[in-house]
Amino acid sequence: MASSHAAAAPFLLVLLLQLCSSGLALPSKFIDQTCPPERLPAVALLSNGGPFLCNPPAPRVPVAVFPHDVDPVQFALNLEYTEAEFFLHGAYGAGLDEAAPGLARGGPPPVGARKANLDEETRRVVSEFALQEVGHLRVIQQTVGGFPRPLLNLSADNFARVMDNAFGYRLNPPFDPYTNSLNFLLACYVIPYLGINGYVGTNPIIDGYKTKELVAGLLGVEAGQDAAFRTLLFRRRGEAVPPYNVTVAEFTDRVSALRNRLGRCGVKDEGLTVPRELGAEGAICTNVLSADRDSLSYSRTPAELLRILYLTGDEHVPGGFYPDGANGKIARSFLGKPRGANESPKN
Ligand SMILES: [Fe+2]
User: Fold this and answer.
1) pLDDT band for position 346 (50/70/90)?
2) Is the residue at 291 inside a domain?
3) What is the mean pLDDT of residues 153-178?
4) Would you give the distance in Å from CA 302 to the centre of its chain?
5) Would residue 156 count as lying in a domain?
6) How far is the CA of 302 from the centre of ligand 1 (A)?
7) What is the phi/psi pair of residue 9, to 5°?
8) 189 alpha carbon – ligand 1 mean position (Å)
9) How far is the CA of 336 from the centre of ligand 1 (A)?
């Protein structure tokens, strides 16, 4: 017995070290206790690559991260912090300060985020996405470094302001994202989509093989999250959102129109249904995914994203989700400048 324990000790130590180094040491409240103990065949077979070639070819330009990659990729942390805190609080009632406090880098806790009243399916989806955001924050910081979490306003009041702006009048009662699953999904419609736009915009201006791989991986999951939210909403597109006499489809259309207005760069955002000429190949009004005339994701610059996320239509005037402004060199470069001043060439 003693010898079998001794033989197992190095293995357990290696396992523990692997868990710690991969950053998966989450507090128990974030660990799903309902997962079956046995591994499913599909993943059990994949634990070792065996004799097959699994490595990609060597990069043509052997530079992992160029200096000019750093600021645009770091800028994405602003959106990732917002998603992480909104999803973590919505699903678990606790944010980054409990899940992975080091990733907040000493930034202030968010204002007004709380646990949402979610049905089981929505809670599971949001929980998964929340944990994915922890991974996104970690890998971005590991690859290009980071900055402290900015002050985030995730209060019901702020989301109510978004919806009031979208509709052009005050919803009565004010919109509350935390009150039920449908409202939370509508609030989720507001944020991750902008992550897609941002990553599409970042891709052409970075050159390192590591940063390009990172942005492609982030874009894939952000797009998947947005698609999942939009699909869940699309199934309910004809329902009126209680107690408002407005359908889910109209809510999405209004939010997309608001983002286009605030972004001030034309149509880069579409609701769940569109006029046929704006649908895929100008032939369909179903619009589960928002995309351009070639069915490619729209791109936005940091300046456009900040105009929208600040709810001011001006990247120089903070507000909305970032009362003190977003963080990082690019976002801070806009603050303190008069409107109309030349934008940083990195925007
Ligand atoms: Fe993310």
Assistant:
1) very low
2) no
3) 98
4) 15
5) yes
6) 16
7) -60, -50
8) 14
9) 29
Cα of 193 vs centre of ligand 1, distance in Å, is 10
CA 217 – ligand 1 centroid, Å: 10
CATH number of the domain to which 221 belongs: 1.20.1260.10
Establish if 143 belongs to a structural domain: yes
The rounded Å distance from CA 80 to ligand 1 centre is 5
When divided into structural domains, the chain yields a total of 1
Tens of pLDDT along 132-149?
999 999 999 999 999 999
Q: In angstroms, what is the span from residue 245 Cα to ligand 1's centroid? A: 33
CA of 76 from ligand 1 middle (Å) equals 9
State in Å: Cα 131 to ligand 1 middle. Answer: 9
Can you give the C-alpha Rg of the chain in angstroms?
21
Whole-model pTM? 0.88
User: Ligand 1 mean position to 81 CA, how many Å?
Assistant: 8
Rounded Cα distance, 109 and 14, in Å: 35
What does the DSSP assignment read for 81-120?
HHHHHHHHHHHHS--HHHH-GGGGTTPPPPBS-------H
Q: Give the distance (Å) from ligand 1 centre to CA of residue 235.
A: 24
Residue 36 domain-assigned (yes or no): no
pLDDT digits (tens, 9 = 90+) for 52-98: 788 888 999 999 999 999 999 999 999 999 999 999 999 999 999 99
According to the model, what pLDDT value does residue 337 have? 56
Q: Which residues constitute the domain of residue 180? A: 64-236+314-334
